[in-house]
Known about the structure:
single chain; alpha/beta; seven-stranded mixed beta sheet; 10 helices; 9 strands
Amino acid sequence: xxxxxxxxxxxxxxxxxxxxxxxxxxxxxxxxxxxxxxxxxxxxxxxxxxxxxxxxxxxxxxxxxxxxxxxxxxxxxxxxxxxxxxxxxxxxxxxxxxxxxxxxxxxxxxxxxxxxxxxxxxxxxxxxxxxxxxxxxxxxxxxxxxxxxxxxxxxxxxxxxxxxxxxxxxxxxxxxxxxxxxxxxxxxxxxxxxxxxxxxxxxxxxxxxxxxxxxxxxxxxxxxxxxxxxxxxxxxxxxxxxxxxxxxxxxxxxxxxxxxxxxxxxxxxxxxxxxxxxxxxxxxxxxxxxxxxxxxxxxxxxxxxxxxxxxxxxxxxxxxxxxxxx
Length: 326
C-alpha cells in the first residue's frame, strides 16, 4: 500500500551545481539510453519511480544508465563482490576539487589533458577518472593494491573511446605506499585525490554493511550482499580512515615538489582534529576543508600543498597557462 505522497524537492540542494545528477533521476531518459534499467524501476512507498538501492543488480543497472546517458561510457562493469559506487557523490568530489583549482588559478578551472590527476585507490569501477576525464578533459593515473581492480579498470578504459589513452592504471605493489612506485622522481602531478577506507577492521566493515542494507530496506534480510559491500581493502584499513590519511599525509611531504595539490575525502568529522595536527606537523601550506553533502550524508574534502606562493605561480604559469576553462 502506498503511503501518502510527500512533496520532494526537484533538486538535491547539497549536491554541486554542476553535478549532472543534482536533479532527481529522470528514469524515462535513463531507460531511453539504457533499456535494461526498466526492469528494476518500480514505484517506491511514495509512488515515485525508483530502484531498490539494497539490490546490487539494480544499483549496477542504474550506474550503467547514468554513465551511458551522462558520460558516454557504454561499456562499464565491475567484478562480483566489488564496490558499486554512488555516482552523484563521486562526481561531487571532482566538481568541488575543480573549484579548488579554479580558486587557485585566477578564477579559471584548468581543463585539458595537461592537467594530470592521481587517483589513489582507483578501484574496479574507475569512477573518478571517468568523471574527471569526461567533465574536464583531465588525464589520470589510477593506482590500486588489488590486481583484479586494476584489471577491471583497464578493461573499462580499453573499451570506452571517451577515456582511452587518457587514463593509465598502475598496480601498487606495496600496500604501505601511496606515492612511491606510482609517481616517478621527475614526474609532475597537478592533483591527487583519494576516497580512503572508512572502517578500522573487517568486523566493523561487515557491521556497517549490514546496517546500510537494513537502513535501505528494514523489512528484508540484512545479510551482506555480494557486489554491494565491497572488498576488504576498499572498506577497512588497520587504524581506520584517520590512520590511512595520516600515513598518506606523511608520505606526501616527500613528494612536495611533484604535486601542486594533495587531497582526500574525510567521512568522519571527528578525524579532522588529528588530520589538521599532522598537516601542521609536516608544514603543509594552504590547507582547505571543502564541505560536501548528499542527502543526509555530510562529508568533506581536505586539500593541502607544500608549494609557497612563488612556486605555485610558477607551476600555474608553466603547466596551466594553455589550459582552457569552463
